[in-house]
Amino acid sequence: MSSSSAASRRGEKARTAAGRTPMREALVAAAFRLFLERGYEQTTVDDIVALAGVGRRSFFRYFPSKEDVVFPDHERYLADMTAFLAASGDEDDPVRRACDAARLVLRMYTEDPGFSVQRYRITKRVPGLRAYELSVVWRYERALAGYLRTRFARRRDGTLRADVIAAAVVAAHNNALRSWLRSDGRGDAGAAVDRALNHVQTAFCDPAAPRAERRPGAAQEDVVVVVARRGAPLWRVVREVETALAEGRRPPN
User: How many CB atoms lie within 10 A of CB 142?
Assistant: First the structure.
């Protein structure tokens, strides 16, 4: 090994140890800088590795193609989602489980909103990247459908139900996600996706299935029950409801 190669390896280890960008992330950062400055189609792999200060072999060690550098984490999240679905038990409502799997994918976008917005802008401008993204989305949908087909195998039209629900989960997730990306990552993406996925759960969840536990930070809805005598005037019932709501808003002593 030459002294320059050894120094390069030591430098890479030092950057990693210091918590800085490892080689893979450096390649992604270099690629997106060039995509934004020159345009995706005008940027070559040679341009990317030159800016990152590495060789072509290093690029292809991490990314099979230039398209893959635009979507660097999809393989990992697809694997995580598949494992999450495989760990499901018979007691889990399959529709809620599929929706929670979609929420795992959302984390990929919300971990770095700036990067996600940049990728969205680039993908919108490049037809080839839009086609690539559609192929990635299709793989997520197939993973969800495969899980749901297994859970609905004994039901009439189980395969059809599984495919329809998988498509609905992906459509709801992507609708909310793209609205968030179009807003430049402003607002609460998690709340938007929850709202969209709740439509799927309302439409397809088994009413007899136990309610899923609320996730930490999820909005809690107040339910007020008022008991009134039959024939009580409406104004009195309204006053009782207002009183109950007011008491619920008071801070604890």
Answer: 14
